[in-house]
Structure formats: C-alpha cells, structure tokens
Amino acid sequence: MADQFDLECRDVVKKFDAFTAVDSISLTIPKGSFFSILGPSGCGKTTLLRMLAGFQAPTSGDILIKGSSVLGVPPNRRPVNMVFQHLALFPMMNVSENVAYGLKRRGADRATIEKKVSDTLARVGLPDSGPKQISQLSGGQKQRIAIARCLVLEPAVLLLDEPLGALDLKLREHMKVELKQLQHEIGTTFVYITHDQSEALVMSDQVAVMNAGRFEQVGAPQDLYYNPHTAFVAGFVGESNLWKGTVGMTHDDHIVINLPTGGAVLASRKTHPTLAEGQPVDVFVRPEAIAIDGQGKTDNAIAAKVDNVLFNGAASSVQVRDKATGHEMTVALPQTGAFANLKSGDLVNLTWGAEQTRCFVAAQNQEATA
Amino acid sequence: MTNPASSGTGGAVRFGALLLAMPLLLWLFLLVILPHVDLLLVSLRERISYGKYEFSLINYTEFFVEPLYWNTYVRTAVMSIMATVLTLLIGFPVSYYIAKVMRGKGKNVLFLLCLIPFWVSELVRTFGWMILLRESGVISNFLQWAGIADGPVEMLYNDATIMVGLVYTSMLFMVVPLVSVLDSLDDSLIEAGYDLGGNAFTVTRDIVIPHAMPGIASGCIVVFMLTLGNYLTPNLLGGKDSLWFTEQIYTQFITRFNWESGSAFGFLLLVLSSMIVWIGLKLSRQTLSETVS
C-alpha cells in the first residue's frame, strides 16, 4: 500500500534539548512529484531534510522510503541523495570525478562509470565539461553538476537544500524553470526546501508551508495562494494587505470586521462560517483583488490617497493610505497600463468583493502573522 | 616589471619599500647568509699547522670514509622521518577530533591542552620524561610495587624512548597546521561524501586528506626539520648511544675543537634536510609556496 509513495514521514519529531525543531510532521510524497517545503529560516525545514538524508535521527516517529523504514540506516546506505545548499562539490576532483564518485563507492566497473557519467553530463546539458576543474564552472554549471552527481546514482528521492540561494537573481529565475523541466524529464521525486515562495510556487506539484516545526498547510501552489488555511500561510505566501480587527455584526451573507482605527471591512459569511461576534481576527486582502476606480463588486469601498507608485513592469503596484483610517495598503496596478499616469497625491477609490477578504482568528502569538 | 607610467615616483616607492624591508634583509644577511658563507669557507679548508690553512675537501671525504659519521647521518635521517610519520599518524586523528568533532568550548579547551606542555622549556619537559622513565623513576617503582617487575627497570637510553620524546616534542607543530587546515574544510563536503555512498575510510582518503594536504605537508616539514636538528631530546633520553648527527657536530666543534670538520657536518645536515623536504614535496605533489601560505 505504501509502495506508491517514494517518501513517507509518520509523526516525525526532532528535539534539541528543550527546543522542538520538528514537531510531529507527517507527509507522503507520491512517486515522481516535485514536493517543496516552504518556510522562514529557523522553521525546522533543514532539520527535516537532514533527517530524510540520514544525518540526524528523529527523536520519535518513522521515516519510510519506498515503503520501508530507514530509521537507523546511515546516509551512505539510503537511496536518497542530497544537493547541498552550497553544493559541496569536491574541489579536489574534476567534474567527471565528482560525478563518478558515488558510482565508484558502489564498486561499479570502469566502463559502466564512464558511460553513466557521460550520459548524466549530457542530460544536464554539460556533455563536454568532464575534464574541467570545479573552479572553472559558473554558478549555474556548478548547480547542474551537483544535481548530476546525485542523479547518476538514480536515487529514489533527490533532496535539495535551497540550492538556488547562492545564485544571482537572473540565474535563479532561469534555474527555477530548468530545475522543473529537468525533474519533469527524469521523473525522480524531488524534495526541495526553500524560504523563497516564488521558487516553491513555480516549481512544485505540492508545497508544504512550514512554521515553527509544524506544517501549516500542504497543498498545490494554487491552493495555498487562493485558499490559505491559516493566517501564517496567507501572510507568507504571496503579498497581502493586513488588518487586525474584531468580528462585529453578522448579516445574512456578510460579516462586518470592525477595525480599531474606526473603519470596517466586509467579509463573506460563506467562506467564514465559524466566526463569532467579538473574536479578534487578522484580515488579509491580496493587492490584486482590489480594484482601482473599478466597477466590479463594491462590498468594500475605500477612498485613499496614493503615497508611492512602485513601477515594476507587469508587477507594478501603488502604496496608498486609507483617507479615513490612515491604514497603509498596497494595491496591484492592472497590467493593461490603465493607471500608468497615477502619481503620488492622487485620490483613488478602492473596491473589492467581500469574498476576497480572508479572516483568521488571531493566534495567541500575534507576531506569527506579521 | 617597472611600470613606465609611474616611473617618476617609482624610485621613491622602491626606496621606501627597501627601507621597510631593511630589518628583514639585515637579519637574513647577518644571521643567515653571512654565517653560512663563513661556515662553507671554514668547511673547505684544512689546517696545515698553527695558523696556516689550505683549500681542501678533506673534511667532506673524511665524512664518507669514516663509517661512524656516515651511519649516524643515515640513522638520524631515518629516525627523523619515522618520528615525523608517527607524529602525523597520532596528530591527524587528534586534529580531526579538535577541528571537526568537538564543538564550542570543548574545542578551545582541547586545543589549549595541546599547547600547555609548551609553556615550559624543552629541557624541563625532557627531564619530566626522565623522572618517569629512569631506573629509579616513577614507572619503574610502580612496576615493582605492583609486583610486575622484580627489580628496577631502565627505560631510558634506547631508540623507542628517543622516539617517544621526539614525537611528544613535535606534536604541537603538527596539530596547529592540521587543525587550521581541517577547520577550513566545509562540513557539507564530508556529509556529501557520506551521502553519495562513502564510508569513513573512503571519505577520509578521497576528501579529507586531499583537502588537508597543504597542512600535512607544512606540519611534516616543520616537525622533520625540528627533529633532525634536535639536540636535547636524543641526547638526554638516548644517552651516549643516541648517535644523533647534531651530537657529532657538537663534538666536532666543542670537544675536538675541529671547526673545519664541524662546519662540513653542518653543511651536510643542511643538504640532507633540504633534500628530504624536496623529495617529500615532490612525492606529495605540493609546492613550498602552497604549504607555507
């Protein structure tokens, strides 16, 4: 039954003295999928990955690879390989020796090694780089060699520990697409950890959002973005405007959230059936859900003054200030260029439908939503 | 190498640099080059009669003709190489433990423990060994008290004791460069080695040792030279039979008052150490500049 999953965790806990780094994580990763673990630094994602690789042992719980437990199996016997954050290519060997390293450890014969190394180098698009020294490679090439070094061993699962972190922005964008393509071609299960939401959203089939040692939500990227289950996910995945308020009167299909500054925001009753009057809530609205001087739904309407125009091509936005409450908001500009002439000081009418408002009962520790 | 564009100020700059380098140049010239030139000249002359000297190679031929000198020379070289290898074999795991296994405070404490014996002079340390190992010493008495030995046991004045003393004296000079070079080895390289299927032996052979090679080479050079030129330890722990080449030089200069022969021996020792270091560097494919940097 478990065979259809390449990787499975059951209630994995890792404690360092009193500190719980990973707190009862359970996950199943189907064969051939691209699974990302997204979380801020210090959330325990690296610890989790290191437990999967075998460098750390869980305090309790079980880890299964292809249906059999790997607890107590050292890293060199596990059918998983890891691409390290700083790649950890061996500088004392050239490219083909790096790729051949794992095969040599398995005792493969020379002809097999040579064939597999050249096949793998061709597969990552660097067929002639075998005799090169590691220091002669560019950042993106090193990246591909680090992946090739693992892929040549045909692991059940490839673990990637923020491997794009060290690259510059342009290369990172490029490698994102390339990694996804590569994974698609070879069909190996990838477990990718990152703190960069766009990496996770662009590449993954499934994303687990991790915070303080726990999974907040596991789902497809679209799910996380449009249907966040917790305030943390809503705040961490994508941009959001945030208010803190209390639930006020509830109408047939609307809930009124009163803001401490005096204003109010309307939310849909249908999407928040459990909210009760008087509960403190965090309110999230995506910048692109807000229309400027638009028709659309006008459940919420705010008159605001433009503070700053942040022009960034198709991803341009404006920072505005609610005239009544003084609350700062970010609103995405439509990509049609309709508001290209907007400048600071202009007055705009902002509207959005109640169903675009997301409310979460405020947690005990308020900073989690920041 | 002069840059034509800056030739106007070049002279001044060069003079400044020369001035800055003066202490070093003086030191090199007065304390290294000049004595050696003199030593060479002294070694190449023969005393004919009182105050009369002649050019001659007799001091060198004497060395090759007299088997005692020749044997002492080879024995010193072999023992020094053995001491260097032993120091490396013991020092490497110690350094690895300090650099890679220990974390935080314990690391500094261990490193300090390696350093502490060097707060007293080599002479005092060597006497410490003598107190332990001599016939009426601590270990001998303990063995008798425990009923393991019937009479006093003499553990001084043999080659094994010399070796123990030499390794002990040299340990720090091996551990320091090894710890610093192993510190610079990224942990993830070791982890990657295991992750890709390596075991402790292959990871050490393929990743740790190649990375540590400059440190190994520099540690070995320092230890070898210190050992080869050591006088105190072989003399005190090995006694009259220690047959260390530095003792021969001492005898020529001080006991026999034969400066010509002593100078020749001094030069032969210099040639020996240079040659062995050169061969060692060639064998380990290191360069001297890589090693000292």
TrEMBL record, chain B:
Family: Belongs to the binding-protein-dependent transport system permease family. CysTW subfamily.
SUPFAM superfamilies: MetI-like (SSF161098)
Main location: membrane
GO biological process terms on file: transmembrane transport
Protein's recorded name: Spermidine/putrescine transport system permease protein PotB
Annotated source species: Thalassospira xiamenensis M-5 = DSM 17429
Keyword tags: Cell membrane, Membrane, Transmembrane, Transmembrane helix, Transport
GO cellular component, one term: plasma membrane
A Pfam family annotated for this UniProt entry: BPD_transp_1
Organism lineage string: Bacteria, Pseudomonadati, Pseudomonadota, Alphaproteobacteria, Rhodospirillales
Topology relative to the membrane: Multi-pass membrane protein
Compartments where found: Cell membrane
Domain ABC transmembrane type-1 per the UniProt entry, residue ranges: 73-280
Transmembrane segments: 12-34, 77-98, 110-132, 160-182, 215-233, 263-281
